[in-house]
Design a protein that fits this description.
Strands 1, 2, 3, 4, 5, 6, 21 and 22 form an eight-stranded mixed β-sheet that branches. A five-stranded parallel β-sheet has the order 8-19-9-10-15, covered by helices on one side. The protein has a three-stranded antiparallel β-sheet with strand order 16-17-18, with no helix packed on it. It is of the alpha/beta class. The protein has two domains: about 230 residues, FAD/NAD(P)-binding domain (3-Layer(bba) Sandwich); about 110 residues, FAD/NAD(P)-binding domain (3-Layer(bba) Sandwich), CATH 3.50.50.60. It contains eight helices and 22 strands. The longest helix has 16 residues. The protein is globular and about 65 Å long.
């Protein structure tokens, strides 16, 4: 995963949110016996930045579409993450198409600022977001098109974009042994701030961007250990007075395709941006540990038999995809979407907002709009009956 928090953390149906101003286009979930408009050119599943960018691209083309989302409010997933979370991308590189991110272009926005921006974006372009509409199933129909079932309605569409993002189901490793139930355990998606943890040592498991950020914050109030399974390549947040993303944009590296040799290699590794574990150890006294492998009551054992006895554990161990609700032959044996720049082998079914969907920036706020534009063009070509054939591997013959 690249610059994890510049691409919004998401849950199933990428929860969106919002109580918009009167007269705006964002709509609430269905109430009572209200009947939805069921037939659309396109249904977008997920109302985070990917779904909103897709909605903007379709609105520019005059298509009838709806954005379905599980959450109560635009930006809900952002608001539900830890209090001090900030983007790794400056504001100038954190905008969706058509609306600049407010404030100092060189500032690094916090989670509330991102959530507010997404809420404003949905209202600014009157995007038809339906809240509290967790998608239960998506099925392709024999005669073409799709049915999308939510708790309150059955939607039909000619085409569907799955914009639920890369961070859907919190993942926890399986350890040998049992952890003492008296130890508080939180996944990073549940962590909010140090004040909510008991006194005593905290073990943060996971040396990626989230683990390092959380460990740095906790070290100021608690004795903190950080268990790292794999040392990651670290890049500075700023270089020679410029944001890392200025360099990536200026050199074109942010646009290098995953199909290239460099892209294939880069997509296989997570990159740590900014402060590294060694800095935490030297400046904040964080104890660095190797991978946690087993537990025995109040003790956790790491590789090399190093032992830690924490009062609480924060599992910054990432997320896994969750596509059990998608009933279409678009996954490989490991359950991963098979696609070429989001285009699958099922005519009219797409993915958007995944890490390395096409480039390094595909899951990030400032670049997801480029993939959305590409898919919008593809969607229009299908409506016009001029779409390009797709191979069995999900690869359009001309992209």
């Amino acid at each position: 995963m690249w610059a994890t928090f510049a691409g919004a953390p998401v849950a199933h149906s990428e929860q969106v949110s919002g109580r918009p101003a009167a007269g705006m286009g964002v709509t609430s979930g269905l109430m009572g016996g209200e009947e939805p408009m069921r037939d659309h050119d396109v249904v977008i599943v997920g109302g985070g930045q990917a779904g909103l960018a897709m909605g903007h691209a379709l609105a520019q083309r005059g298509l009838r579409f709806v954005i379905l989302d599980a959450g109560p409010r635009v930006g809900h997933v952002w608001r539900s993450r830890w209090d001090s979370l900030r983007l790794f991308t400056p504001a100038r590189y954190s905008a969706l198409p058509g609306l600049a991110f407010p404030g100092d272009p060189e500032s690094y926005p916090g989670k509330e600022a991102v959530a507010d921006y997404l809420e404003r974006y949905a209202s600014e372009f009157s995007l038809p977001v339906r809240h509290n509409e967790a998608v239960q199933s998506l099925r392709s129909l024999p005669a073409g098109g799709f049915e999308v079932q939510t708790p309150s309605a059955l939607y039909r569409a000619e085409q569907v974009v799955i914009a639920t993002g890369p961070f859907q189901r919190p993942w926890l490793p399986t350890l040998e042994g049992v952890i003492d139930p008296g130890i508080l355990q939180l996944h990073s998606s549940e962590y909010r701030n140090p004040a909510r943890l008991p006194a005593g040592e905290v073990l943060v498991v996971g040396g990626g961007n989230s683990g390092v950020q959380i460990a740095a914050e906790l070290a100021r109030t608690h004795p903190t250990s950080l268990a790292i399974g794999e040392r990651l390549t670290r890049l500075p947040q700023r270089l020679l007075g410029r944001s890392l993303f200025w360099w990536l944009e200026s050199t074109g590296l942010i646009r290098v395709s995953v199909d290239s040799g460099f892209g294939r290699r880069a997509s296989r590794r997570e990159v740590l941006i900014g402060t590294g574990p060694e800095t935490l150890a030297g400046e904040l006294g964080v104890r660095l540990l190797p991978r946690v492998v087993r537990s025995a009551g109040d003790r956790l054992y790491c590789e090399g038999d190093e032992v830690v006895r924490p009062s609480s554990i924060v599992w910054a161990t990432g997320f896994r995809s969750e596509y059990g609700w998608v009933h279409a032959p678009v996954f490989d044996a490991g359950g991963r979407p098979v696609h070429a720049r989001g285009v699958t082998a099922v005519r009219g079914l797409y993915f958007l907002g995944l890490s390395w969907l096409h480039t390094r920036g595909s899951a990030l706020l400032g670049w997801v709009g480029r993939d959305a534009e590409f898919l919008a063009t593809r969607i229009m070509s299908i409506k016009a009956g001029s779409d390009v054939p797709v191979s069995a591997r999900g690869e359009p013959s001309a992209l």
